[in-house]
């Protein structure tokens, strides 16, 4: 059986991507609050789409988590 290192690297990257997304989605150790606080006080164009609110970061994290899991499932279904 031939080992495809590109697929292994992609799966590892997507796993880390999904873990980082979960940290934002579930506000692990206040990471969403910290990200929102870091945008407060900036010039308005830098705070596009409500980046200074924790709910924005939680939603973005949930979206990232969904995308990462969907791509991982798709890869595993293609490999089988």
What would you say this structure looks like, in words?
With 80 residues, the protein is mostly helical. The chain has helices at residues 5-25, 31-39, 54-79. The longest helix has 26 residues, at 54-79. The protein is elongated, with a radius of gyration of 16 Å. The model has no long low-confidence stretch (mean pLDDT 87).
Main beta sheet strand tally, sense and closure = none
The ordered H/E elements are HHH
- Structure annotation, total helices: 3
Assign the structural class, choosing from mainly alpha, mainly beta, alpha/beta, alpha+beta, or little secondary structure.
mainly alpha
Can you tag this structure with a few keywords?
80 residues, mainly alpha, 3 helices
Task: Please provide a brief summary of the model.
By secondary structure, the chain is mainly α.
Give the arrangement of secondary structure elements:
Blueprint: H1 5-25, H2 31-39, H3 54-79
Helix pairs in contact: 1-3, 2-3
């Amino acid at each position: 059986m031939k080992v495809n290192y590109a697929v292994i690297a992609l799966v590892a990257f997507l796993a880390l991507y999904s873990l980082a997304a979960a940290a934002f989605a579930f506000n692990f150790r206040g990471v969403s609050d910290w990200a929102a606080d870091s945008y407060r006080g900036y010039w308005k164009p830098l705070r596009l789409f409500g980046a200074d609110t924790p709910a924005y970061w939680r939603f973005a994290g949930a979206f990232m988590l969904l995308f990462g899991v969907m791509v991982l499932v798709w890869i595993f279904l293609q490999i089988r």
